[in-house]
Design brief:
By secondary structure, the protein is α+β, with helices and mostly antiparallel strands. Helix content is 29%, strand content 37%. The protein has six helices and 19 strands. Strands 1, 5, 6, 9, 10 and 11 form a six-stranded antiparallel beta sheet that branches. Strands 15-18-12-19 form a four-stranded antiparallel beta sheet. Strand 10 and strand 11 (111-121) form a beta hairpin. Helix 1 runs antiparallel to helix 2 (36-44), helix 1 packs across helix 3 (90-103) and helix 4 crosses helix 6.
Length: 251
């Protein structure tokens, strides 16, 4: 399920580019206003499979109609700014949507964003070969032995492990959402090589003092519709609940 939140900007707003922490905090606070127990469970525990915990939600970057850059800040001009928030969990969507409607605004950092409209979209039909765009960086990490211990490192989008880890991560999310493995576990993902060739460096965000690197590139996915739905609702890769790995089917 996708909540498309449409903000109306009547007065120029200034926000640091590393705003992910503000949005994540705002989401938990808004959910807590409607269902405190659910918000605390989601924040503290999430949904567990093996030694991995998933929050099963994802959001996009802020998408203003018009903005300028001032050092490390984004200056959002008057007009419409959008934010997409997805989750397969009904309680998440209901709690967030109801609190947003009740409040009529969403506080992101020091700025209050007034809501113009909220749209709920859930009836997505996919082609067998679906083209996707990436609206926030996809993060993939792996553990490797260094100095006598296992250390985490970012996987580059050109490494085979990048797609391999995305697939494995998707299957785990699928199991948490549906309580079973997919009938057809075949997943084929192909990123646009020409785009990657011109955008190899990736994108860095700072989240509470930690640098997180991800990659943005369009791609084609071939798999069952229910797996694609999990990818859209939960995000792909890691760190989805801090706004990484948001994808959308290309119109």
């Amino acid at each position: 399920m996708r909540l498309e939140i449409e903000f109306i900007i009547n007065k120029t707003k200034k926000i640091n580019f590393n705003y992910n922490y503000y949005i994540t905090s705002a989401i938990y606070n808004l959910i807590s206003e409607h269902n405190k127990d659910f918000s605390e469970m989601l924040h503290n525990e999430g949904y567990k499979i093996g030694n991995k915990r998933f929050k099963l939600f994802v959001y996009s970057r802020l998408m203003p109609q018009k903005f300028t850059i001032d050092g490390s800040n984004m200056i959002i001009e008057k007009g419409i700014t959008r934010l997409y928030v997805n989750s397969p969990i009904k309680e998440f969507i209901n709690s967030l949507g109801n609190s947003l409607i009740k409040r009529g605004s969403m506080k992101i950092g020091k700025e209050e964003f007034q809501i113009n409209n909220i749209y709920l979209k859930d009836s997505v039909k996919f082609n067998h070969e679906t083209k996707f765009i990436t609206l926030s960086p996809i993060v993939v990490t792996t553990g490797e032995e260094r100095n006598g211990g296992i250390r985490s490192r970012t996987v580059h989008i050109t490494e085979d492990k990048f797609i391999e880890n995305i697939k494995n991560n998707l299957i785990k999310k699928y199991f948490l959402v549906y309580g079973k493995l997919p009938d057809n576990m075949s997943i084929d993902i192909k990123f646009n090589e020409e785009y990657i060739k011109n955008n190899r460096r990736g994108h860095l965000i700072n989240f509470k003092g930690i640098s997180i690197k991800g990659y943005i590139a369009p791609f084609v996915m071939r798999c069952s519709d229910d797996i694609k739905k999990v990818a859209v609702d939960c995000g792909i890769g890691e760190n989805n609940s801090i706004g990484m790995g948001y994808i959308m089917e290309k119109k």
